[in-house]
Design brief:
Blueprint (H helix, E strand, L loop, with lengths): L3 E4 L4 E6 L4 H10 L5 E6 L5 H12 L3 E4 L11 E5 L6 E2 L1 H4 L9 H8 L1 E5 L12 H9 L3 E5 L2 E5 L9 E3 L5 H11 L5 E5 L5 H12 L3 E3 L5 E5 L8 E3 L4 H14 L1 E6 L7 H10 L1 E6 L2 E6 L8 E2 L11 H9 L4 E5 L10 H6 L3 E5 L2 E5 L4 E2 L2 E3 L3 H11 L2 E2 L1 E5 L2 H4 L5 H7 L4 E3 L1
Parallel strand pairs: 2-15, 3-14, 6-7, 10-11, 18-19, 22-24, 23-25
Antiparallel strand pairs: 1-25, 1-26, 3-5, 4-5, 7-9, 8-9, 11-13, 12-13, 15-17, 16-17, 19-21, 20-21
Helix pairs in contact: 1-2, 1-7, 4-6, 5-6, 6-7, 8-10, 8-12, 10-12
The structure holds uridine-diphosphate-2(N-acetylglucosaminyl) butyric acid.
The site of uridine-diphosphate-2(N-acetylglucosaminyl) butyric acid (EPU) has 23 residues, from helix 1, helix 5, helix 6 and helix 12.
Amino acid sequence: MGEFVVHRSGPLQGTVHLGGAKNSALKLMAACLLAEGGHVLSGVPRIIDVEIMADVLRAMGVTVRRAPDGPDGEPGDLLLDTPAVLVPEAPYELVERMRASIVVLGPLLARCGEARVSMPGGDDFGERPIDMHLTWLTAMGASFETAHGYVQGRVPVGGLVGSRVVLEYPSHTVTDNLLMAAVLARGVTVIENAAREPEVRDLADLLVAMGARIEGAGTSHIEIEGVAALTPAVHRVVPDRVVAATYLAAVGIAGGEIIVTGARAEHMDMLLAKLGQMGVEITPVEGGLQATAKGRLHSVDIATLPYPGVATDYKPLLVAMLTVADGVGIVSENLFSGRFRYVDELRRLGADIRTEGHHAVVRGVPGLFGATVRATDLRAGAALVLAGMAAEGETIVTDAGHVDRGYDDLAGALAGLGADVVRR
Ligand code: EPU
């Protein structure tokens, strides 16, 4: 899986460019199942999860390839060619590597009238069920059987039917799946308490460009009027706000002044407010954000919430910042029960953190010291790299492959800002 070798770094300086969002790109790729023909997605990051999703789609008969990279290093467009007839199955070997594969369920049912998708297993965040996906696709007329580790879904002749959906929790991927199911359903689907993430809006923008009728994406009330068929489109992926947060947290930890081009302040309001309270000064500049940090950070309390709250994906980065901030911060995780596993690794670097259920109390220390630690998941891995930048001596972050799932060369990007981070 490789490892990161990190030494104390900073002050950082320079400009880093942001690629497209993983959690949008994966869904946009799945949306290409909905229409026969050639689709073009720009700004799709070169990350492992995109490769896994490409393999999921290939298993269904879609041709997926990359155009050559642009002269500025911009990843080449992703070109997807969807056949008239699909193999509506997502096999165990691929779903097991990436839970987000479940997002093919809605488009397959809508386009093929059937789907066979391996049930995602547990992961490092603890329990992550798919009950809401099944409940609401059932409300739209699908029926499901589970056997031999697979969910088998069928739609009666005539297709899915529009329905009123009231989500008990504004799940991101459930909203995506229902959107993709509803665009080809008969009649109107209304999703109440829908997820409001910018990536949901991005998916809806692609679907509209393909001919779908959708109102309200990006708000908690979405209305979709089904159409008979969609056609392929050309679309650019929204910038990755979690990767942006990673660079902003890096400058918080190491100090300095950087510009993140492509970063959109309106997608990160709460995060920017928190970073501001911690002492990272962030100002919009032409095409991005400038972030400046001098001196020691201040502690704040943080509670993760569905968008537009502070995203659970930002939390490990913020906890890494709190480990060296002045004061005590209380961090509450409200989304994923197991998402404190990396805390033990931060403690190995000298962090003073106590966890109790969904809460962590982080007492800032003046500095960390290097050690070998393990990336327990994607965001945790990035957070450990950042923590290593505040540590005396050498920090080795093993299981670096987790980080490759969502970052296109994190070490290279941080090194470009002057950080002493190497991937090997
Ligand atoms: N949930 C259910 N039943 C379901 C679906 C979800 O109970 O059928 C629960 C989950 O167990 C969890 C909560 O709902 O407690 C939130 O889950 P949600 O469905 O919103 O999360 P997700 O769609 O599975 C996406 C991102 C995650 C990100 C979360 C929260 C993708 C591919 N993943 O997951 O990103 O943490 O939203 O914003 O979009 C990451 O990028 O590393 C990552 C994990």
